């Protein structure tokens, strides 16, 4: 199967380069267009049982700074990978949900993402990768991160 639109989901850690490298190879083999996405979780998702409401406006400011930092880091990855800035997206929310949603909106036929596969159900893939697979609108290629 030839892929034409590949969505690369990265978490902006050092391992992101491994995932992008694999995606570039897949894109070259298929003459495909690459897009990048990273997702910033809201603080309320990160600190599930903690009362972040008491922090008020600080929460909004912290989330804004996290998004700004993610946008800057993603722009650097996009530039190195030769991906135009308008195809480098920062989502907010549940990573698995946002990745699936953007893949569907873009008409992606392949999602490339990393997998640590360290815990729980994730012994095979990883929690985000597992979440993307369930309900994905297209094929998913997971790159094993060492």
Topology, element by element:
Layout: E1 5-9, H1 16-30, E2 33-40, H2 43-46, H3 57-81, E3 88-92, H4 95-106, E4 110-115, H5 127-133, E5 139-144
Parallel strand pairs: 1-2, 1-4, 2-3, 4-5
What share of the residues lie within helices? Answer: 40-55%
Structural class based on helices, strands and sheet pairing: alpha/beta
Describe the biggest sheet? 5 strands, parallel
- Biggest sheet strand order reads 3-2-1-4-5
Q: Which radius of gyration do the C-alpha atoms yield? A: 15 Å
Order of helices and strands: EHEHHEHEHE
- Count of domains: 1
Instruction: Show unreliable segments.
Output: 119-123
The proportion of strand residues reads: 15-25%
Q: Regarding CATH, which class?
A: Alpha Beta
Summarize the structure.
By secondary structure, this protein is an alpha/beta fold. It contains five helices and five strands; from the N terminus they run βαβααβαβαβ.
Note down, in words, how this protein is organized.
It is built from 5 helices and 5 strands. By secondary structure, the protein is an alpha/beta fold. It has a single domain (5-144), classed as HUPs (Rossmann fold, 3-Layer(aba) Sandwich), CATH 3.40.50. The longest helix is centred in the middle third of the chain and has 25 residues, at 57-81. The chain is globular and about 50 Å long. The chain starts with a strand and ends with a strand.
């Amino acid at each position: 199967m030839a892929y034409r639109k590949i969505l690369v989901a990265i978490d902006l850690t050092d391992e992101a380069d491994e995932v992008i490298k694999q995606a570039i190879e897949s894109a070259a083999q298929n003459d495909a267009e690459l897009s990048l996405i990273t997702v910033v979780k809201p603080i309320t998702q990160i600190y599930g049982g903690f009362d972040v409401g008491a922090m008020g406006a600080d929460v909004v400011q912290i989330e804004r700074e996290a998004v700004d930092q993610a946008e800057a880091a993603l722009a650097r990855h996009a530039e190195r990978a030769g991906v135009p800035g308008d195809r480098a997206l920062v989502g907010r929310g549940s990573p698995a949900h946002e990745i699936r949603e953007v893949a569907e909106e873009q008409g992606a036929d392949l999602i490339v993402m990393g997998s640590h596969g360290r815990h729980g159900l994730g012994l095979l893939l990883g929690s985000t990768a597992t979440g993307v697979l369930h309900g994905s609108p297209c094929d998913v290629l997971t790159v094993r991160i060492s």
